[in-house]
Structures are given as C-alpha cells and as structure tokens.
Amino acid sequence: MLKTITRQLFARLNRHLPYRLGHRDPLPGAQTAVNATIPPSLSERCLKVAAMEQETLWRVFDTHPEGLNAAEVTRAREKHGENRLPAQKPSPWWVHLWVCYRNPFNILLTI
Fold first, then answer.
1. pTM of the model
2. Dihedral over Cα of 69, 71, 76, 81: its sign
3. Of 49, 59, 90, 105, which has the fewest CB atoms closer than 10 Å, so is most exposed?
4. What span, in angstroms and rounded, lies between the C-alpha atoms of 24 and 104?
5. For residues 21 and 98, what is the distance between their CA atoms, to the nearest angstrom?
6. What are the Cation-transporting P-type ATPase N-terminal domain coordinates in residue numbering (predicted)?
7. Cα distance between residue 41 and residue 47, in whole Å
8. pLDDT tens digits for 56-80?
C-alpha cells in the first residue's frame, strides 16, 4: 500500500515539474563509453597480468611488496612531479544551495 501511494505521489509530482527536476541526467560520456570497443591488445595484456605469478608481477611493474623506499619516492617525484590535484575554488553559498535543492526529493527531506 505504501509503495502504491509513493508511486502515485511521484507520478503526480513528475507531471507538474519541469523535466530536469523530475528525471536524472545521464552521466556525461556514458553512451560513448558503452559503445566503445576495447582494443584486443589491452584485453590480452590484462589477461596476461592476471595469470602472472606474484614475483613476476613485482618484477614487471618494477616494485616490491613493501612499496617504494625513500630513494625511489624521490626519483619518482623528480621524474613525474608531486602527486597533487590543483586546488579548486569553493563555490559560492547560493550555488551550493541551488545544487542541493535542484532535486525536489531533497526539499521533502528537509521539511
């Protein structure tokens, strides 16, 4: 009974709300990722790596079970740079509020 009431409520809400408020947007690039084919070389490489012995894996990837030591870390940082993402400026409060309440379900949860 509760399930049917909920379905009826959301059906009525969806009829009167703009499409963007009642329906979820697809992930960007989701269709291209689904339709893309995986190159055979990549799948062959994955299968080979999955079948390797543990010691062979350490040798192939030039690492060891204990992880990198201080000298290896220094060399990797000199070669590749710091492993950091650029800092992102925080959104203004009104943008954050809009993003939070763009979905009508969040308004119901707040009330």
1. 0.39
2. positive
3. 90
4. 12
5. 12
6. 48-109
7. 10
8. 999 998 888 898 889 999 999 999 9
Q: Which two tokens stand for residue 34?
A: 């689904």
Q: How far is 40 from 43, CA to CA, in rounded Å?
A: 5
- Over 90: is that where the pLDDT of 51 sits? yes
Token pair recorded at residue 67: 């992880």
Whether the Cβ atoms of residue 14 and residue 21 lie closer than 8 Å to each other: no
Compute the half-sphere exposure of residue 3: CA atoms within 13 Å on the CB side of its CA.
0
Tens digit of each residue's pLDDT (9 = 90 or more) over 72-111: 999 999 999 998 888 888 889 888 888 888 888 888 888 7
Let me know the angle formed at the C-alpha of 12 by 10 and 17, rounded to the nearest 5 degrees. Answer: 90
